[in-house]
Amino acid sequence: MFFSASSGLSQYPASAELLHLQEKMAKTHLRDLFAEDASRFNKYTLEAAGLFLDYSKHLIDDKVKAALIKMAEQAGLKAAINSQFTGEKLNNTENRAVLHTALRNFDDQPVYVDGQDVMPTIRKTRACMKALTEKIHTGEWQGYSGKAIRHIVNIGIGGSYLGLKTAINAMTPYHKEGLEHHYLANIDPNELSEVLHKIDPETTLFIVASKSFSTLETLQNAQAARRWMLTKGCEEADIRKHFIAISTNLSAVDQFGIAQENTLPLWDWVGGRYSLWSSIGLMISLVVGYDNFERLLKGAQSMDRHFQQAPLAENMPVIMGMLGIWYQNYFGSESHAVISYDHFLRDLPGHLQQVDMESNGKRVRNNGEVVDYQTGSAIWGGTGTNDQHAYHQLLHQGTRLIPVDFIAPATTHNPIGEQHSWLFANALAQSQAMMQGKTVDEVRDELAEAGHTIDEIDFLAAHKIIPGNRPNSMIIPEKVTPETVGALIALYEQKVFVQGILWQVNSFDQWGVELGKVLGNRLFDRIQEDEDVADQDSSTNGLIKRFKYLNQ
Question: In this predicted structure, what is the pLDDT of residue 255?
Fold first, then answer.
């Protein structure tokens, strides 16, 4: 079941053609598209930066693809791509450049922001990260009692947590022995208590990752960790041996008690959800080694080069971005699933939720006008084959159009019997089943062969039909390596960029996030007051009153 097309993106001349093509494609089945064109697989696959993309199981033909690329050209996408890499201030509401791509740049050319080449300071920061990593790994860095560091705790939330965890878990086979890593992101005291019970104060290093050094959750957890260290025998003068800061707010870092030599810089042209490539990635370097962190960066740069250089019609982020436009703005799709058939990639959907939904969940264009079309998509997913026994039922027989990306590495770090072949076969099977489904004739023949009566077949057939015709992509890295992990994350970042350009929204601010922070500070003060609160809405007043009563 597909939904009626919206008005599309009427600001582009190609939209009228796409609306017409959508009417035809909504009545077309993917089975028929494959039957009509034996070269379909070769026509709709491409390879870049160690990733292979099969997008042949999508509701497109040559005319649809050509119209989508035409729309991208009409949006000025090629020029926009170039502007991303040259320091132009694409974040117009905060007057900032958007240069996370410079963080993974290993070329010799300068990259300018406000006339200043930022590459020397990026290289200097990488050198500091490498030196700090070596000090930890060699045991040169010691805690207050003279013992080497054995526990690393990253204190950060949002982009200072999600991307790190995704990359670190993805690179599990590359983890350094003898080091344990932990995260403090949530302000929930249960998480704090759980982490503190796992670590040894004499051998723990905390990384406080906050651009402003004022993020509520991060600062509260950092202060709690500091107090905990002092109660465990660490002297005030030795706090510097157990804390590293990554921030732009050097005065706040100094006030906290972290030494200047233990502070790494961050820049305002690095958005939080893109910060794993920056000094925020120190945690990655410590866990997998600086050389592997650099491999991660170079994998992302490889995808960036492809994004810059490949023609739009053969450009992996462009193809994925325009397919998303096709379904969201012409078929009414509201969500997109990302399912990884690799345990090490289990956190990828969570990171992509922030990359995509925080970037393009916008209701106004860059010029402040309210949009009259759908922007953004609800991103969700998990890992196969676990999820096949959960929500795949909705994907196959539900009423919603939900495009899916299946990510399935061709080889594994841990070959055990036939398990990886079974895993890959399941990924292929889900992709194929979504495409072809099972017709009423196939169902009836199957039931008859199983010995069911005519009446039983008449009753059961409707329940066992699988419509198919569900669009999906297969993304196949040869193996999960630092390079392919970097390329994969960069692929989705650039896909989001493409869609932001087409929707004409600012993909690099997040004012909706800020409102909750402001209200949270205000309501915390109300919770701390002795008298009853009466100046909020009745629901908030009542909930605060109940909270106070239960915490007397």
Answer: 87
